[in-house]
Design brief:
It is built from three helices and five strands, in the order H-E-E-H-E-E-E-H. By secondary structure, the chain is α+β, with helices and mostly antiparallel strands. It has a domain at 88-193: General secretion pathway protein M, EpsM (Gyrase A, domain 2). The model is unreliable at 195-200 (pLDDT under 50).
Amino acid sequence: MLINLLPHRAWALARKRKNFLTSLALAALLGLALAAAATLWFGQQLSAQMSANSLLKKEIAAVDKQLTEMAQLNDEMLKLGLRVSTLQALQDERKLLAAWLQELADDLPDGLYLTALKQDGDKVVVHGMARSDEQVFELLRQMASPARWLTQAELIEVTGTPLTLDALALTGTPFAMRAYLKRPAGRDAVHLAQPISATQ
């Protein structure tokens, strides 16, 4: 008895082909689904990253603005500090001028008169007239005290010929002396900051 197996083999081959095509179609669908999901996920990540970058740029711009404002404020504070320092230096210079002028006036012996004062930095040149040389040396002795604003006093010249200042009706021997200002520091600066009394 002969059995024909050809149709059976053809059916099995067709079934295998159909199963293969079905598996291939499912794999393609799964691949497309995975690709779509990956594309969607990457798009969301990219959108989130772009949003974060935009926010970061805004924050950086805000910080840059604050830094610029702080730099401008620091610049204004430096300028203000410079102006305050300059005004303080001018005020200290004015107080020092008043202090040594008062001190010099207190040191003047009777019969000695000042005719001119010249200040060049810390150097002060004094011109005057005295009725005698003793009065000139008395002024030098007074200015030699260590607790004075004018220090290192020295006589430049004494003219032997008496002169008369008609405008002031004064007669005496002209003289010139030189001294140097002692800049205040420590206790001297505190003392200089106090009001200067005309009766010192």
